[in-house]
Request: fold
Amino acid sequence: MHHPYVGRVARALLIAAMAASSAACATVTRGSTQDFTVQSDPDGAAVKTTAGDSCVATPCTFKMSRKAEFDVTVTKAGYKPATAHVTHQISKGGGTAMVGNVVAGGLIGVGVDAVTGAANDLRPNPLVVKLEPEVPVVASADTPAAAAAN
Reply:
């Protein structure tokens, strides 16, 4: 004969296990997106990413997927354009959450975190770009432009 008390205890234990598993899940604790910041020296440069984001003047911040990989191009009049690659890697906080998933028996949580990228952080973040001034081209006596001027 089945006792009603046993069913309630089993249900409570199941709910507690699910709560512990999801509490450790990086998708819940960290989310699948993060702020990504671009800074430049000097400030005020335009930014475009291969992920489709842009801003007219640095510093600027975008909300990006934690599992994204993309290139960032920074431009400013009078300076050479600069391009950098941004990637992702498992972060300390994301790795801790993933270990919590395993300890709490949350293999589903491990899978969800892997799919969403929630255990990752974008690197480098912030992206700091030192722009190099363009060197003006000076015509020398050996160039056709200088010869034509004489």
Q: What stands out?
A: The first strand starts at residue 33 and ends at 41. Residues 4-24 form the longest helix (21 residues). Helices lie at 4-24, 26-29, 92-103, 107-116, 144-149.
